[in-house]
Design a protein that fits this description.
With 447 residues, the chain is mainly alpha-helical. 28% of the residues lie in helices and 6% in strands. It has a single domain, classed as di-copper center containing domain from catechol oxidase (Orthogonal Bundle). The strands form four sheets. A two-stranded antiparallel sheet has the order 1-2. Helix 2 crosses helix 4, helix 4 packs across helix 11 and helix 10 runs antiparallel to helix 11. The radius of gyration is 22 Å and the shape is globular. It binds tyrosine. Tyrosine binds next to helix 10.
Length: 447
């Protein structure tokens, strides 16, 4: 077996008591402090280099994104289990929040390694020290889609995609001198396959269509899209789709209209829906909080919040609203290819943050089986790694993520404490005074 890649998270920047924060992306970009400004540049360059890596490279953007769904290849493991066509991602499953945790950690770690090994060495020597320090405290920013943003030219705040994702070109500091700013294609706007390859050449059928003879044809894209118009009836393949198109105004209007799928809840704003995740009457258990899996359980009244509300449900809607629907298409709306859109990672960092906040509020007892409250086997787990009929448990392997060089898999129990994984979120800093009781001891109920 070839050596495995241990997912450890970033160890740099961790001190005895504190760990670096994943920040809300709009508070971090464009950088308001010298440290954030350098981190912005480290991140944009690192992502750019990651996306340029050969798709045959295990640690390329292409292959890391490909863990989630298509091209349905094994990643970092020797296995024949590639017959199923589901990908590794766990949806409609109790493992939904915990599986995506090491997935984000892998991405964060690979970007950090590129910062240190590929970005910083290109700088003049007198800049390298400052950039190394900034890299040590960098963590993957999250997109808080439930927070309204102030936007230039808008009187009122509104839900919006992060600024860093909006423009096709983005300003970066020239690594040759560490000073001059110039513009490059923005790696957060869309992912473009290196060397003008099509994703389809690597086993991805982005869009399926039927031609005049009812044969299934696939239209491979070269780049990712959000709300692209797809014109199957035209003879030539829609260039909007093949080249990658982004329609921000349609994402923004949809986020603000919040057309939730499901019945009778269209008028619930995003922030209110997220708030309900933390209110006991809505969410009574981890299993209720975590996944869509039990929403169809026969003893739920279809009109009750328990029948629709959970973290995965909110997450699903954000995927669809970012990717596009009806006459439009976009990678984010399709689980098989969603992770190829670079916005996916900031979306999922926020999903991970909701999970971490819920853990803090619920004071989940680390000695207890947190999966226990509802864990009946309803139907196929929709995941190729877990055999149909198996129950998900906190020790189910979260394949393909290895926690060590011996090839042991992460489990949900292993990822419960994010501080041990080398990151946290602004609301979850036990070392801050506001989380200490009158004796100066950490009191989790003050979260
Ligand atoms: N299409 C899914 C739904 O409607 C949402 C989704 C999209 C979920 C992409 C995950 C994903 O990766 O429920």
């Amino acid at each position: 077996m070839s050596p495995v890649y241990p997912v450890t998270g970033i160890k740099a920047g961790v001190t005895g008591t504190t760990v670096p924060l994943r920040l809300e992306v709009d508070t971090w970009y464009p950088g308001q402090t010298p440290e954030h400004l350098i981190q912005n540049n480290l991140f944009i360059w690192a992502l750019r280099f990651l996306q340029e890596r050969d798709p045959d490279h295990k640690l390329s953007f292409f292959q890391i994104a490909g863990i989630h769904g298509m091209p349905y290849q094994p990643w970092d493991e020797d296995t024949d289990a590639i017959t199923a066509n589901e990908g590794y991602c766990t949806h409609d499953s109790l493992l939904f929040p915990s599986w995506h945790r090491p997935y984000m950690l892998l991405y964060e770690q690979v970007l950090y390694e590129i910062m240190v090994k590929q970005v910083i060495p290109q700088l003049p020597e007198d800049k390298q020290h400052e950039w190394t320090d900034a890299a040590a405290t960098w963590r993957l920013p999250y997109w808080d889609w439930a927070q309204k943003k102030t936007r230039e030219g808008q009187d009122e705040t509104l839900y919006d995609v992060p600024l860093i994702t909006k423009q096709p070109r983005i300003g970066v500091i020239d690594l040759k001198d560490g000073v001059t700013v110039f513009y490059i294609d923005n790696p957060m706007y869309k992912f473009t396959m290196p060397d003008e390859e099509r994703m389809g050449c690597f086993g991805i059928s982005d869009i399926q269509d039927t031609d005049a003879n009812n044969n299934i044809t696939t239209i491979p894209a070269q780049a990712t899209s959000r709300w692209a118009t797809y014109e199957p009836e035209s003879d030539t393949v829609s260039t909007q789709w093949t080249e990658g198109t982004v329609r921000n105004s349609l994402i923004t209007s949809t986020l603000n209209e919040h057309p939730w799928y499901g019945k009778g809840i269209d008028n619930v704003p995003l922030a209110e829906m997220v708030y309900r995740l933390y209110v006991h009457d809505y969410i009574a258990s981890y299993t209720q909080f975590a996944t869509t899996k039990f929403r169809t359980s026969p003893d739920y009244d279809p009109g009750s919040p328990a029948a629709y509300l959970n973290l995965e449900y909110i997450h699903n809607n954000i995927h669809n609203w970012t990717g596009g629907f009806d006459k439009y298409v976009g990678h984010m709306a399709e689980p098989a290819v969603a992770a190829y859109d670079p916005i996916f990672w900031m979306h999922h960092a926020n999903v991970d943050r909701q999970f971490a906040l819920w853990q803090g509020i619920s004071l989940l007892d680390p000695t207890k089986n947190w999966f226990e409250s509802r864990n009946e086997q309803l139907e196929d787990d929709g995941n190729w790694y877990i055999r149909t009929g198996d129950l998900d448990t906190p020790s189910t392997p979260l394949a393909p993520f290895h926690k060590d060089a011996e090839g042991n898999y992460y489990t949900s129990d292993d990822v419960r404490d994010i501080h041990k994984l080398g990151y946290t979120y602004p609301e979850l800093q036990p070392w801050l005074d506001k989380y200490k009781d009158t004796h100066g001891n950490f009191d989790a109920s003050l979260y």
